[in-house]
């Protein structure tokens, strides 16, 4: 759930800006279709939305055995259950039918005068026709952030148009819930996550019922990549559960004091895994006990910073960035209505223009959570993490060669893209308009070619982010209806629900059923190559998931080995001997004299294939150093080097080489002290 800085918003109150952070009718009736094909339900709610797609959904794999189809890596099917239950109006499905599912929140009647979130996010006075079914005069719309966009039949249309994987991120925010005027349930985040998970399983059962019973519907929740592949090969939609929330496991912080511990993290991860969750964010919008966040900009950033204070008792703190990556600038835009919520005498601080990085990175508890996710073979969503937090997470994954990293909706610094691909991770772009989406896709096209990967999109629908507007009826290259799906198996016409028919040219991406139309718009604007990369997206996402499941921690060949060094710092109270860097204890370390040219040598005892060396630096790190290998301890071959070391956890990967001896050769110190390593790992994989 996000809001993107390029969209200009009018100054708005804290309530809304914080909020921005973030069927059967009397029994089944026979389908109107005479078809008895597997994709046509035996019974559908009546009345109900049309699908407006003809043709059998494609099954199977391509000639290389790869899954075909699109992946939406970031959607919020059940966010109408979040934020106290009255922020997103309308339901994804209802046993009482479409008229019950697609109706507005009670306080929006009769004319939207109390649609507070609507007028705050859209502007104007918020007034609108609250009636959904059957007229849909004012909603759903590409710029209405308060109304249901994920009705089940619209998701069905996206599936029929070629989508084969959908990630349903269970989402909420306790602070947003607490400050919003209208709610009908608890603001506890984990309670909401549990409910949304259950509702997703209920939706599966609802669709199954239309097709004749359990397991027969097209909407299939999967808990491993093999299941997902099987579902996609059947021509159905594989649904993956994720989590995007600000205080997972209760891990908020108050005045920089964590409100959770390792036991809470273990219990929380175990519970989420049992619910079927396989990917998640560790922080979102507000700093928490696990990690710092990537800021929001301008007026929105100021308001969210107020929310940060209300949630944690502290404002964001910034520092100069140490590398090319940076967090979004907070800016100095005023949000007077938001700032009124602050206690008397408390003001939002000003920030230096050249200090654009969050001081808060991945905490000790955050590292514990990252490693806990790895142990459970879960995938980490890197979006929304501060540069400092994301960098440390990358370091940990690289040290273990763990591929499970996802950027699902354009919120990470784009300079991380190759680092994601190098690990084996997956990247999706936010559902921008066809021009912007195509331009960004082409910018990273060479990287996808280099790593032979597909591409994804993150619709973020029901995520209060805003969606592509219309290019206009007079555009010289409109989407022409009907059109064929990317694979050619389906014919897609304008989508009709009740009395309303939508056209991507004049309505934009108003709801999820228009995803196929948006993809056709991308083909027209960006070309077939962009769509081809997107059509490979499901395979690449499943590759990342499968590699995460199959990951095995490598054997550290250096553990307990004999070690020697050019020098060792002397202390009356502790030892900094070379063997302290290979004793398996991150609390001990080898430290050299305080001069540049120093080395640590490790004798593995016998020749071994070496592909990877990890170095866990103490603050006294190497800025310029190289990894050298030898078969005899005398003649050395340099296999990896850097001149930009910044400490922390470094991973050197290189072509597999047989050697008995490994030497870390420091050439230039990163501090005034010497070189100091808590632990060195040597691996064959």
From TrEMBL:
Domain of life: Bacteria
InterPro entries: FA58C, Galactose-bd-like_sf, Metal_Hydrolase
Ranges where the F5/8 type C domain occurs: 550-685
Full protein name: F5/8 type C domain-containing protein
